[in-house]
Amino acid sequence: MFTQKNNILVRDVMMSLDRVPVIGESVIFKEALEEMGRKRLGIACVVSEQKRLKGILTDGDIRRMLLRVQKPFSAFFVDDALDHAIQSPLTIEPAHTLVHAVRLMDEKHIWDLPVVDGAGVLVGLLHLHPAVEALLGIED
After folding, report:
1. Domain residue spans in the chain?
2. For labelling alongside 22, which of 48, 73, 82, 113 has CA 20 to 30 A away?
3. DSSP H or E stretch at residue 112
């Protein structure tokens, strides 16, 4: 059973980009929040024109930033989203094992992990719930 779990790859479980909030690096913060709401995920991936991952915005990071930065809430809406993004996010490549990815997510206490190719181009997103379901759903 453990061997089967080691054979599942991130690419087999990751969410495709059409299901992920992906925004350009010049998008304003308000638009980033709207896209997160449309896709119903607590993360947005910020990409360059070449689709290279530039950063991520998460619900938790947004909450902590709002508490830390002392300015009116409405003033954040016109900021560039990238200004408030984590600009060196943890990522994983599609060929890594799902077991490795879930262990990494547990170690770092994160729910979502951007999936990038060798050139740093965003190709998907690994969300913890489908990852765990895939690992638990393997039959003996």
Report:
1. 2-136
2. 73
3. strand 112-116
Over the chain (140 residues), the average pLDDT of each successive run of 10 is 72 97 95 95 96 95 85 85 93 97 96 97 96 78
pTM of the model: 0.89
pLDDT at residue 140, rounded to an integer = 42
Give per-residue burial for 12-49: e unless 16+ CB within 10 Å, then b.
ebbbebeebbbbeeebbbeebbebbeebebbbbbbbee
Length of the chain: 140
For position 1, what pLDDT does the model report? 43
CA distance 76 to 65: 10
Contact 24, 47 (CB under 8 A): yes
The CATH superfamily assigned to 2-136 is CBS-domain (3.10.580.10)
Q: Are the CB atoms for 42 and 36 separated by under 8 Å?
A: yes
